[in-house]
Amino acid sequence: DLRRPPDGDQVFFGPYDDVPDPDTYLPLMKESGLCAPCHSFSFWGTPIYQSFDEWLASPYSEQGVTCQVCHMAPTGQTHFVLPEQGGLEHPPETIPSHLQPGASDEPLLQNTVSMTLTTRQPAGSLEVVVTITNTQGGHHVPTDHPGRNMILVVRAEDEAGHELRQLSGPVVPDWGGAGDAENDFAGRPGKGFAKVLRDATSGEWPVVNYWKPTFIVSDNRIAAQASDISSYRFTRPATGAARVLAELWFRRLFIDQVRAKDWETPDLLMASAETVVPASAFPHHVLLPLIIRE
Fold first, then answer.
1. Helix (H) or strand (E) holding 249
2. Are the beta carbons of 6 and 41 closer than 8 angstroms?
3. 166-168 and 125-134 beta bridge pairing
4. Span 227-265, pLDDT tens digits
5. What is the pTM of this model?
C-alpha cells in the first residue's frame, strides 16, 4: 500500500501490527536493515561508516542476531505509548528501548571484548602473549567514526616496580600519544587498533575529515568473534618475581585531536588482565666450568 497522511495529520510506521489507520506496521523496524542508511556509506569512494556491512559479513547476521538486540534492548516496559494516549499493552520483550547505547556507554564497551594473557620463560627472558577477542560486538571494534581507536598497553615489571626492558614485539604507534603525560602511550609495548585515514591532499594522517578525499592507510580493527594475538619479550627480573599487566583503552578520538580541541573525552578502560610470574618459574643460571682441550 502507498500511504499518504490525511491533511493536517502525520502517518507513523512502527514494529506493531495492531496499530489503527493511518499508522501502519513496518517489519523493517525489527531488522538490521533499518540501520543501514546511516551505517553503510562511503565518501569519495572510501568506506567510512561500515558497521552494517561488518555486521552483514559476521556470524551474527547468519544467526539472525540484529543490531536492535544490543542497541535497543528491552528494559521491561509494557507500553510504548502511554495508556491514556491510546497505547496498547505488549509483552515487555517486544518493546525496544530507545536509549541506544554506543561508543559513550561504558558498560556496553566493557562487555564487548575479552582479554587474556599467558607467559612463558625462555632462557634469560620473559615472553608475554596477549589475546583480545571481540566476543560481543556484532561488527568490528572500534567501528564507524574513524577517530575511534583502541590502545593496548603491556607492562612487565620486577618486584620493586621497575619496568623490564622490552626485547621484541610491537609498540604503540605515534598516534597513541607521543608526549610525557600519563596516558601518552606511543613507543610503549602494545598495539593500536583503528581505521587510519590519510588526507589525499596534505598527506597528513591520521585524520577524521572524511568529508574530504581520504585514503585508508591501515585497518587492523577486530572483526566480530575474531581475535588479535600479539607477543612481547622482556628481560627477566634480576631477582624475584615478575608482574605483567595488559590494559586495553578506548578513545573516541585520536588523543592529539582531543587536545587540540580541548575536549574532555577521557580514556575508557575496556579490558585488563594481570598475572604474576614467580621467581621459581625462571630457569636458573648455572655456571659451567670451562674446559680447554689442547
1. strand 242-251
2. no
3. unpaired
4. 999 999 999 999 999 999 999 999 999 999 999 999 988
5. 0.90
Q: Strand 13-14 relative to strand 24-25: parallel, antiparallel, unpaired?
A: parallel
Residue 163's closest CA among 102, 227, 235? 235
Q: Residue 108 gets which letter from DSSP?
A: H
Torsional class of 8: left (φ above 0), alpha (ψ -120 to 50), beta (otherwise):
left
Query: At residue 31, what are phi and psi to the nearest 5 degrees?
Result: -115, 155
E-strand spans in 13-111? 13-14, 24-25, 41-43, 46-49
All three cell numbers of 250: 578506548
Q: Say how many Å lie between the first and final Cα of the chain, rounded.
A: 102
Residue 32 φ then ψ, to 5°: -65, -25
CB 169 within 8 A of CB 285: no
Number of residues written out for the chain: 294
In the block, cell 544467526 appears at: 63
Q: What whole-number distance in Å separates Cα of residue 276 and Cα of residue 11?
A: 63
